[in-house]
Design brief:
alpha+beta, Fumarylacetoacetate hydrolase, domain 2, six-stranded mixed β-sheet, five-stranded antiparallel β-sheet, 20 strands
Length: 331
């Protein structure tokens, strides 16, 4: 099942069911007004949405319309929680190395996780509005899940059964603001503006064999100003799968339906299963490699007017979630 939220002028938009090929859609207002409303009563609402999805794919609905990603908000425009794990240790190693810091051994067994702002996510074509280029504007290609209610102390196996939807994310970072925040002994706040999401959230079964072991297997393509800069495989080098990340979150708290859990920027090591040509899912990684090789980075961060496109294609070359295509603008 594929779901989207159509912008109607309200903060939460209107829930729509989208066809498998992303060509048509049907409003789900007769079933649930918003995605959060569906998540709040998922056991009752989901079968009805799935029935509408089946009819839509068969061409049996009367009120179908052409699906336009430009009309979409984030699938879940605002959420009760947004936490981001660092599941790809190669990404963490590169960024710590660039700051002349060693990676703590504990990170290999216990995931790093930060909490971000969830009150206003960006839609797939919303501009990234920021005040200064000097903040070090960076994109971050990643994946996230939306969970149902998860009790405190849930095991990874229990958490796996609470994953309802998967999304494609652009975790925007302001790299030049991070050092000062970390120096205070706290975490990211100003350095993490609103994240953006692809237009469609999908149920795990839609991914078929690409969803296994609590991971999404497939390349995330990042195209910066029309140039493909990275296509790392999300299922490779993921040290902590989504059930493990959710269980880590719920060690000392419960998660409410609609909580979004990200896995961080997808990053592949240049050896092993991933090839060196996988590129990068954020600019900071490329700059870290340049610093290690040449003593200083040569790739700039994003500037006003720059565009980033992030998407994942299935085996047939068709987009799974639709695409994120955002432009950085001066606020």
């Amino acid at each position: 099942m594929k779901l989207a939220t159509i912008h109607d002028g309200s903060r939460d938009g209107q829930l729509a069911v989208v066809s498998r090929d992303l060509k048509s859609a049907h409003m789900a207002d007769a079933i649930a007004p918003t995605l959060q409303a569906a998540l709040d009563d998922w056991a009752f609402i989901a079968p009805q949405l799935d029935s509408l999805y089946t009819q839509l794919n068969r061409g049996e609905t009367r009120r179908a319309f052409d699906f336009e990603p430009q009309r979409c908000m984030a699938p879940l425009p605002r959420a009760y929680g947004w936490v981001q794990g660092a599941a790809y240790l190669h990404h963490v190693e590169l960024l710590l190395r660039a700051r002349n810091a060693d990676m703590p051994e504990s990170l290999r067994d216990d995931p790093l996780m930060v909490q971000g702002g969830s009150d206003a996510f960006l839609g797939p074509h919303d501009d990234i509005l920021l005040a200064h280029e000097e903040w070090g504007i960076d994109f971050g290609a990643g994946l996230a899940v939306i969970v149902d209610d998860v009790p405190m102390g849930a095991t990874p196996d229990e958490a796996h059964g609470r994953i309802r939807l998967l999304m494609l994310a652009n975790d925007v970072s302001l790299r030049n603001l991070i050092p000062a925040e970390l120096a205070k002994g706290g975490g990211f706040l100003q350095s993490k503006p609103a994240a953006g999401f692809a237009p469609v959230a999908v149920t795990p079964d839609e991914l078929g064999e690409a969803w296994r072991g609590g991971k999404v297997h497939g390349a995330l393509r990042s195209t910066w100003n029309g140039h493909l800069v990275g296509q790392p495989d999300a299922g490779v080098d993921m040290a902590f799968n989504f059930p493990q990340l959710i269980a880590h979150l719920c060690k000392s708290r419960r998660a409410r339906a609609g909580t979004v859990v990200g896995a961080g920027t997808v990053s592949n090591r240049p050896t092993g299963k991933a090839k060196a040509s996988a590129g990068y899912g954020c600019i900071a990684e490329q700059r870290a490699l340049e610093t290690a090789a040449d003593g200083a980075p040569s790739t700039p961060f994003m500037r006003f007017g720059d565009t980033i496109r992030i998407e994942m294609l299935d085996e047939g070359g068709k987009p799974v979630f639709g695409a994120i295509e955002q432009t950085v603008r001066k606020a």
